[in-house]
Amino acid sequence: GAGVSQSPRYKVAKRGQDVALRCDPISGHVSLFWYQQALGQGPEFLTYFQNEAQLDKSGLPSDRFFAERPEGSVSTLKIQRTQQEDSAVYLCATGTSEYEQYFGPGTRLTVT
Amino acid sequence: DQQVKQNSPSLSVQEGRISILNCDYTNSMFDYFLWYKKYPAEGPTFLISISSIKDKNEDGRFTVFLNKSAKHLSLHIVPSQPGDSAVYFCAASAMDNFNKFYFGSGTKLNVKP
Question: Which of A17, A100, B10, B23 could form a disulfide with A13 if both were Cys (CB 3.0 to 4.6 A apart)?
Fold first, then answer.
């Protein structure tokens, strides 16, 4: 595909469940970002990868959040023991450099 | 503590007129600024950027102005078109942490035909 794809597009989880959100970058993009966007807010930075290296994870809100990109391509954001405050749209963005970001459509997570 | 603020949640403009979207920031270390446009159910798409060495950048109908002393930037769209109706986000990053972008909360622009 031509753009960044994310799956699933929608996810409903019961409080306490673990979830895994996937991001497929544009081919050749070395930079990959994850953002969390709460309702009515702008995206908030979670973490940044350059290839397979996670260079910045300062935005991850707790140790329940974990991201990986083992082969420098597809990335997974995992949230353990989901809480209601985790409900948000999770956006992935990729680019050829740190200054460039092409966003995917996002995964809307609802924790009930 | 929001470092990038968009104080107008919405803006309505007549087609053909100018749209001016505003953004303020608090961190004097920010040196790179971007505007994104977002349609419903899609991710944000890049519109235009400006670095702190400039005070203006123009791309077709879109112009971004940066006032470093006021820590303020604005996006001008002229002439506005109905297809410009979307949510606009400004974002900023700092040279010492260039991969970390801070976004405002967005302004919803409605361009009326």
Answer: A17
